[in-house]
Amino acid sequence: MKNIGFLVLFLTMLGCQTKKVDIKNLDKNGPVIIQFARQACFGKCPIYNFSVYENGLLIYNGERFVEKEGTYYQVLAKSTVDSLVNTFETSSFSSFSENYPTDKSAPSDLPTIELSYRNKKGIVKKVCSKE
After folding, report:
1. N- to C-terminal Cα separation, the chain
2. Which of 55, 73, 100, 115 is the most buried (most CB within 10 A)?
3. What 3-state class would DSSP assign to 106?
4. pLDDT tens for residues 41-57?
5. Alpha carbon of 63 to those of 37, 40, 60: distances in Å?
6. What DSSP string runs through 48-59?
7. Tens digits of per-residue pLDDT, 15-38?
8. How many Å apart are CA 37 and CA 18, to the nearest integer?
9. Number of domains, the chain
């Protein structure tokens, strides 16, 4: 799971194009459909999060131990957003357990990782490691 966030961020950046978004009034971009957050560990684990809005707005916030600290945004092509949504829908993400590992055996030093997806019906499913 360590590289999932970077992989998703990299793949989504490949399909970027110009589109009208509202950076100052995020509510005007439609709902957030995908959120990913990687939190702190006891060491130098990267701390960052990103959100993908329905209209393709991607907002990345790098906090610590990342190559780019600060908040950045990019607009994804509709085809990229559609591909991401299709990936969640076909992966049966909604049937995943809410917490991993399911037996609460994660070492205490692992960072908490959260991934959530809002489906077309508006139902949000959140999967979390080590909560």
Report:
1. 15
2. 115
3. coil
4. 999 999 999 999 999 99
5. 11, 10, 10
6. EEEEEETTSEEE
7. 554 467 888 889 899 999 999 999
8. 25
9. 1
- What CATH number did the domain enclosing 30 receive? 3.30.1560
* Residues spanned by the domain of 96: 4-129
Q: Read off the amino acid at residue 108.
A: S
Q: What is the pTM of this model?
A: 0.82
Tens of pLDDT, residues 58-101: 999 999 999 999 999 999 999 999 999 999 999 999 999 999 88
* Residue 48: both structure tokens together: 């960052």
Whole-number pLDDT of residue 7: 46
Tokens at 121, concatenated? 């019906």
What average pLDDT does the structure give for the chain? 87
Residues facing 76 on adjacent strands: 16
Query: Which of helix, strand or coil describes residue 93?
Result: helix
- Name every residue whose Cβ is closer than 8 Å to that of residue 16 and which is 6 or more positions away in sequence: 74, 75, 76, 77, 80
Give CA–CA dist 93/87, Å, rounded. 9
- Tokens representing residue 99 in the block: 């917490």
- In this structure, are residues 109 and 42 in contact, taking their beta carbons and an 8 Å threshold? yes
pLDDT of residue 10: 52
